[in-house]
Design goal:
With about 240 residues, the chain is α+β, with helices and mostly antiparallel strands. The chain has helices spanning about 10-40, 110-115, 115-130, 145-160, 165, 190-200, 220-225, and strands spanning about 140, 185, 205-210, 210-215. It is rod-shaped and about 150 Å long.
Protein backbone atom coordinates (compact mmCIF):
# COMPACT_ATOMS: atom_id res chain seq x y z
CA UNK A 1 0.00 0.00 0.00
CA UNK A 2 1.49 3.29 -0.98
CA UNK A 3 1.87 6.05 1.76
CA UNK A 4 0.47 9.31 0.56
CA UNK A 5 3.08 12.12 0.17
CA UNK A 6 3.37 14.57 3.09
CA UNK A 7 1.42 17.68 2.88
CA UNK A 8 3.05 21.08 2.47
CA UNK A 9 2.17 22.05 6.04
CA UNK A 10 3.85 19.03 7.48
CA UNK A 11 7.10 19.72 5.59
CA UNK A 12 7.21 23.31 6.75
CA UNK A 13 6.87 22.34 10.40
CA UNK A 14 9.63 19.77 10.05
CA UNK A 15 12.00 22.33 8.53
CA UNK A 16 11.28 24.82 11.29
CA UNK A 17 11.94 22.15 13.91
CA UNK A 18 15.33 21.36 12.38
CA UNK A 19 16.25 25.04 12.21
CA UNK A 20 15.40 25.49 15.89
CA UNK A 21 17.48 22.47 16.89
CA UNK A 22 20.41 23.70 14.79
CA UNK A 23 20.19 27.19 16.27
CA UNK A 24 20.19 25.74 19.79
CA UNK A 25 23.30 23.69 19.01
CA UNK A 26 25.08 26.74 17.60
CA UNK A 27 24.15 28.87 20.62
CA UNK A 28 25.35 26.15 22.99
CA UNK A 29 28.66 25.88 21.14
CA UNK A 30 29.20 29.65 21.28
CA UNK A 31 28.40 29.73 24.99
CA UNK A 32 30.82 26.91 25.72
CA UNK A 33 33.56 28.69 23.77
CA UNK A 34 33.00 31.90 25.73
CA UNK A 35 33.16 30.07 29.06
CA UNK A 36 36.40 28.32 28.05
CA UNK A 37 37.96 31.62 26.94
CA UNK A 38 37.08 33.29 30.23
CA UNK A 39 38.78 30.49 32.13
CA UNK A 40 42.16 30.75 30.35
CA UNK A 41 42.36 34.55 29.96
CA UNK A 42 44.20 36.82 32.62
CA UNK A 43 42.06 38.09 35.47
CA UNK A 44 42.90 41.69 34.50
CA UNK A 45 42.57 42.11 30.77
CA UNK A 46 43.58 45.76 30.96
CA UNK A 47 47.15 44.83 32.02
CA UNK A 48 48.10 41.60 30.30
CA UNK A 49 51.30 39.89 31.22
CA UNK A 50 52.92 36.53 30.64
CA UNK A 51 52.75 33.94 33.42
CA UNK A 52 56.56 33.91 33.80
CA UNK A 53 56.89 37.66 34.37
CA UNK A 54 53.97 37.87 36.77
CA UNK A 55 55.75 35.58 39.22
CA UNK A 56 58.57 38.14 40.00
CA UNK A 57 58.46 41.04 42.41
CA UNK A 58 58.40 44.53 40.95
CA UNK A 59 61.12 45.67 43.45
CA UNK A 60 64.68 46.05 42.07
CA UNK A 61 67.25 43.45 43.20
CA UNK A 62 69.49 44.30 46.13
CA UNK A 63 73.01 45.50 45.36
CA UNK A 64 75.81 43.04 45.80
CA UNK A 65 77.58 43.32 49.12
CA UNK A 66 80.91 43.29 47.26
CA UNK A 67 80.11 46.65 45.69
CA UNK A 68 80.75 48.46 48.96
CA UNK A 69 83.69 47.62 51.25
CA UNK A 70 82.45 46.19 54.54
CA UNK A 71 82.78 48.54 57.45
CA UNK A 72 84.66 47.26 60.50
CA UNK A 73 82.53 45.81 63.24
CA UNK A 74 82.05 48.04 66.21
CA UNK A 75 83.00 45.12 68.42
CA UNK A 76 86.29 44.45 66.62
CA UNK A 77 89.43 44.92 68.68
CA UNK A 78 91.46 48.05 67.82
CA UNK A 79 94.73 47.48 66.00
CA UNK A 80 97.71 46.95 68.23
CA UNK A 81 99.94 49.94 68.72
CA UNK A 82 103.31 50.07 67.02
CA UNK A 83 106.21 49.43 69.37
CA UNK A 84 107.49 52.57 70.98
CA UNK A 85 110.81 53.81 69.67
CA UNK A 86 112.81 55.04 72.56
CA UNK A 87 115.58 56.36 70.35
CA UNK A 88 115.02 57.13 66.67
CA UNK A 89 118.76 57.30 66.05
CA UNK A 90 119.05 53.63 66.96
CA UNK A 91 116.97 52.53 63.99
CA UNK A 92 118.47 54.47 61.11
CA UNK A 93 121.70 54.29 59.12
CA UNK A 94 123.46 56.57 61.58
CA UNK A 95 122.90 53.92 64.24
CA UNK A 96 124.11 51.04 62.10
CA UNK A 97 121.10 50.07 60.01
CA UNK A 98 122.24 48.57 56.68
CA UNK A 99 120.13 49.11 53.53
CA UNK A 100 119.80 46.31 51.01
CA UNK A 101 122.63 45.89 48.53
CA UNK A 102 125.45 47.39 50.62
CA UNK A 103 128.89 45.91 49.94
CA UNK A 104 132.06 45.98 51.97
CA UNK A 105 133.26 48.86 49.78
CA UNK A 106 130.45 51.32 50.64
CA UNK A 107 132.23 53.94 52.75
CA UNK A 108 129.13 56.15 52.92
CA UNK A 109 127.39 53.63 55.18
CA UNK A 110 128.42 53.97 58.87
CA UNK A 111 127.96 50.24 59.44
CA UNK A 112 130.85 49.73 57.00
CA UNK A 113 132.90 52.87 57.49
CA UNK A 114 133.01 52.52 61.29
CA UNK A 115 134.36 48.97 61.31
CA UNK A 116 137.78 48.42 62.80
CA UNK A 117 140.27 49.56 60.11
CA UNK A 118 142.27 46.31 60.18
CA UNK A 119 139.11 44.23 59.87
CA UNK A 120 137.86 46.40 57.02
CA UNK A 121 141.17 46.14 55.17
CA UNK A 122 141.21 42.35 55.48
CA UNK A 123 137.59 42.12 54.30
CA UNK A 124 138.24 44.27 51.26
CA UNK A 125 141.34 42.30 50.36
CA UNK A 126 139.38 39.05 50.60
CA UNK A 127 136.37 40.51 48.75
CA UNK A 128 138.57 41.57 45.83
CA UNK A 129 139.92 38.05 45.46
CA UNK A 130 136.49 36.46 45.99
CA UNK A 131 135.00 38.58 43.21
CA UNK A 132 137.25 36.79 40.74
CA UNK A 133 135.50 33.58 41.81
CA UNK A 134 132.07 35.16 41.37
CA UNK A 135 131.37 35.79 45.07
CA UNK A 136 130.40 39.31 46.17
CA UNK A 137 130.62 40.38 49.81
CA UNK A 138 127.37 42.04 50.89
CA UNK A 139 127.09 43.44 54.39
CA UNK A 140 124.05 42.43 56.42
CA UNK A 141 125.40 43.97 59.60
CA UNK A 142 128.58 45.71 60.64
CA UNK A 143 129.16 48.39 63.23
CA UNK A 144 126.12 49.18 65.39
CA UNK A 145 125.45 51.84 67.99
CA UNK A 146 124.72 50.73 71.58
CA UNK A 147 121.14 51.98 71.27
CA UNK A 148 120.57 49.98 68.10
CA UNK A 149 122.06 46.90 69.71
CA UNK A 150 119.80 47.23 72.74
CA UNK A 151 116.82 47.55 70.44
CA UNK A 152 117.79 44.34 68.65
CA UNK A 153 118.16 42.57 71.98
CA UNK A 154 114.66 43.62 73.07
CA UNK A 155 113.27 42.36 69.79
CA UNK A 156 115.12 39.06 70.19
CA UNK A 157 113.65 38.54 73.66
CA UNK A 158 110.19 39.15 72.22
CA UNK A 159 110.84 36.80 69.31
CA UNK A 160 112.45 33.93 71.21
CA UNK A 161 110.40 34.26 74.38
CA UNK A 162 113.21 34.56 76.91
CA UNK A 163 116.48 36.37 77.55
CA UNK A 164 118.34 33.06 77.75
CA UNK A 165 117.31 32.09 74.22
CA UNK A 166 117.84 35.60 72.87
CA UNK A 167 121.42 35.54 74.23
CA UNK A 168 122.20 32.73 71.79
CA UNK A 169 121.76 35.19 68.92
CA UNK A 170 122.17 38.75 70.18
CA UNK A 171 124.81 40.01 72.60
CA UNK A 172 124.33 43.01 74.84
CA UNK A 173 125.65 46.41 73.85
CA UNK A 174 128.38 46.05 76.49
CA UNK A 175 129.74 42.80 75.05
CA UNK A 176 128.84 42.83 71.35
CA UNK A 177 131.79 42.97 68.92
CA UNK A 178 129.46 44.76 66.51
CA UNK A 179 129.30 47.76 68.84
CA UNK A 180 133.10 47.91 68.99
CA UNK A 181 133.32 47.53 65.20
CA UNK A 182 135.10 44.16 65.42
CA UNK A 183 132.50 41.97 63.69
CA UNK A 184 130.64 41.82 60.42
CA UNK A 185 127.77 39.69 59.13
CA UNK A 186 128.38 38.75 55.49
CA UNK A 187 125.90 37.69 52.82
CA UNK A 188 125.09 35.91 50.56
CA UNK A 189 125.68 32.19 50.87
CA UNK A 190 128.25 32.15 48.05
CA UNK A 191 130.33 34.69 49.98
CA UNK A 192 130.14 32.81 53.29
CA UNK A 193 131.01 29.57 51.50
CA UNK A 194 134.05 31.25 50.00
CA UNK A 195 135.08 32.65 53.39
CA UNK A 196 134.66 29.26 55.00
CA UNK A 197 137.22 27.88 52.56
CA UNK A 198 139.61 30.84 52.28
CA UNK A 199 138.92 33.27 55.13
CA UNK A 200 141.78 32.08 57.32
CA UNK A 201 144.25 33.16 54.62
CA UNK A 202 143.17 36.75 55.35
CA UNK A 203 142.81 36.35 59.11
CA UNK A 204 138.99 36.23 58.80
CA UNK A 205 137.37 33.61 60.99
CA UNK A 206 133.88 32.34 61.65
CA UNK A 207 133.30 32.56 65.42
CA UNK A 208 129.97 30.82 66.12
CA UNK A 209 128.59 27.56 64.69
CA UNK A 210 125.02 28.89 64.72
CA UNK A 211 126.02 32.04 62.80
CA UNK A 212 127.81 31.11 59.57
CA UNK A 213 127.64 34.75 58.46
CA UNK A 214 129.46 36.25 61.49
CA UNK A 215 133.19 36.93 60.89
CA UNK A 216 135.88 38.60 62.97
CA UNK A 217 139.56 39.31 62.48
CA UNK A 218 142.07 36.84 63.92
CA UNK A 219 145.47 37.80 62.45
CA UNK A 220 147.15 34.68 63.85
CA UNK A 221 144.87 32.56 61.67
CA UNK A 222 146.99 33.44 58.64
CA UNK A 223 149.73 31.16 59.99
CA UNK A 224 147.92 28.88 62.42
CA UNK A 225 144.37 28.67 61.10
CA UNK A 226 141.18 29.84 62.74
CA UNK A 227 140.43 28.81 66.33
CA UNK A 228 137.64 26.37 67.14
CA UNK A 229 134.18 27.87 66.84
CA UNK A 230 131.81 28.32 69.77
CA UNK A 231 128.38 26.68 69.63
CA UNK A 232 126.79 30.12 70.06
CA UNK A 233 127.58 33.44 71.77
CA UNK A 234 126.65 32.11 75.22
CA UNK A 235 129.77 29.88 75.03
CA UNK A 236 132.03 32.84 74.24
CA UNK A 237 133.91 34.03 77.39
CA UNK A 238 133.71 37.61 76.14
CA UNK A 239 129.93 37.54 76.55
CA UNK A 240 130.24 36.88 80.29
CA UNK A 241 131.92 40.16 81.16
Amino acid sequence: MTRPPPSAGTSTRRIRRLLVVGLVVVIAAIAAALVYQSLISPSSPSSPSSPSSSSFSAEPPLKSSSAVPPSPSSSAAPPSKAPRRENHEALDEAGGLVPDGVTIFDDAIPAVADLDPDLLEALRHAATDAADAGADFYVNSGWRSPNYRNQLLREAVSTYGSEAEADRWVATAATSPHVSGDAVDIGHSDATTWLSDHGAEYGLCRIYKNEPWHYELRPEAIEHGCPRTYADPTQDPRMRQ
